[in-house]
Please model this.
Amino acid sequence: MSNILWVQNISGALPAIARYKADTLGLSNGAAVTTIPDSTGQQPSFGSAFGSVTYVTAAQNGLGVVDIAAAGGMLLSWTYVRAQPVTIYLAAKLQSTGSGNNMVIGGVQWYMTGTGYDINAGLDLVRGTQDQVFHVFTWLLNGSSSLCRIDGVQQGAIGNAGSNGLAVSSDNLAGQVPWRLGEIVVTAGDTLAGGEETALRTKWGV
Model:
């Protein structure tokens, strides 16, 4: 008879492919942000900052964020390849509303379009209504079974965001619509039941 060891993850979050955290940068208020490392050590850092990218201390739930102004941004050379499903979490706040590209990671694009939020992994999936409130956005990219949640609430129906997984690409954070970044988490598979969303909402006070 074999012995089986069960190991339970009690941190409230699953291991990530990448985790970019503004709150651990340790910068002073108003300091220029030149790099945002992946705290898992698996992916390259965001770097090569351009325009105005600054640090704001105690901006959300006592934690620091990165302020990406209009025409500001950072670059990333993504190296990880992963087919769908993929789940991406983003703790962030728009500083204004409008239309423009704000994030590309692994070739997956996050746009502001019209009055909604658009995630594109080959096709546009527009969900939610833009506002200037700090949120935890969750996107499950799974072809025609893709979805968007904001603060744990599904936005509209399940839809098709395309079939592109994560790919080697030249990515960016951009301030075409100015915004504040708290944290980006990328996980392999459908991790909606894994506790990441709840952990981020607790951490960022949403």
DSSP finds one helix and 15 strands in the chain. Residues 1-12 have pLDDT under 50 and may be disordered. The first strand starts at residue 18 and ends at 21.
